[in-house]
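Reply to thread "Modeling small-molecule complexes from scratch"

Following up on the discussion above, here's a worked example others can learn from. I took a protein sequence and the SMILES for manganese (II) ion and predicted the complex. Inputs first:
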Amino acid sequence: MKVLHLSDIHLGSGFSHGRINPETGLNTRLEDFVATLGRCIDRALSEPVDLVLFGGDAFPDATPPPYIQQAFARQFHRLVEAQIPTVLLVGNHDQHSQGAGGASLCIYRTLGVPNVIVGDRLDTYTINTKNGAVQVITLPWLTRSTLLTRPETEGLSMTEVGQLLLDRLRVALEGEIRKLNPDLPTVLLAHLMTDTANYGAEKFLAVGKGFTIPLSFLTRECFNYVALGHVHKHQVLCENPFVVYPGSIERVDFSEEKEDKGFVLVELDGHSTTVEFCPLPVRSFRTIEIDLSEKKDPQAALIRALKPELIENAVVRLNYQIRPEQLDHLDDARIHKALELAHSYTIQSELTNNLSRSRLPELGVGSTIAPFDALKAYLSNREDLRELEEPILEAARRLLAQQEPLVEVVLAEELEPAQTQLRLL
Ligand SMILES: [Mn+2]
């Protein structure tokens, strides 16, 4: 049985990295995302696969505008037409911040679209595919309010609340596992953070709502495959059973500049499972960082750094440092001209002077420095952050010392005012 597993589509995000296509009136990043989603569906049809699993985060929020909903629906409709069963899991971005359920995806449940299952609660489905039946347990993004009531958490520390949540989840998941038919292959489809994953921006995007689930919850013998969503960087967390984040299908922001994007093809064959990551040809993101302050000819150095093969059709951000007295040597029009090759670009310049440079020798390229010392050096050079220096250092101290990190930092409403301020930075 072949399964296509994709996740974190985030259709309708990253518009600031695109521009309006005059022919369609649409943001070019929406067009990129739709084309990439189309490639995933193309593959599902050409294989053809027996089942498509979507790991959650269809849109940036629970109420996408109709034209974006439509672009999403049009692609998944192709699976409906081909009679390929599909499970759409609800991620944190698909939920209303208050209340329950996946607002943006529940329409498909309400419409009763044949072969489409919306995973907005912990539940088990037996799905009949062209190559036999498979059980899929859906575990959408859980928040405190899904499993606990307010009186239950009153007076508890954040760590205790996290523990209570995990106890509840363990019992609930165990209940689903006991109902499984041991003769059928089983897939767990879940949108969550695990304790062993490498995180990018999603860790911060989810602030205030989530908690971390130990990998040991997921690596159960009864699962033939664990299909995850939420983390945008593709990673295989375990091989027995396979526990896989396919990652996002497109670069959502610059934190994903260096990551390969793609989806996963899974072959469930009796007791053995094989997994293949299929990269997608997505648009490049390119950060060009250059210090012009020591250059004799800053203009020439800058133009040299804008290599056409690097920037052509890419989303580019150019950051350069320059001394005030060098500014007259820069020709803005020529710089913009050179950057026209890019799909879109932003320029950020930073004025430096010799004083601040001499205060930051330890942050130079090629030298290594402990994170805490780097932060101290950075803060000592930021007059504007003077008042926040202590709370920032304190927060960093705690972060670096933490044993159970995320449970401690994610419950935003319980942060001290100083920390809340820090979070807003
Ligand atoms: Mn997510």
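What I'd highlight from this example: The longest strand covers residues 132-139. Residues 56-57, 91-93, 191, 202, 230 surround manganese (II) ion (CB under 6 Å). Questions welcome below.
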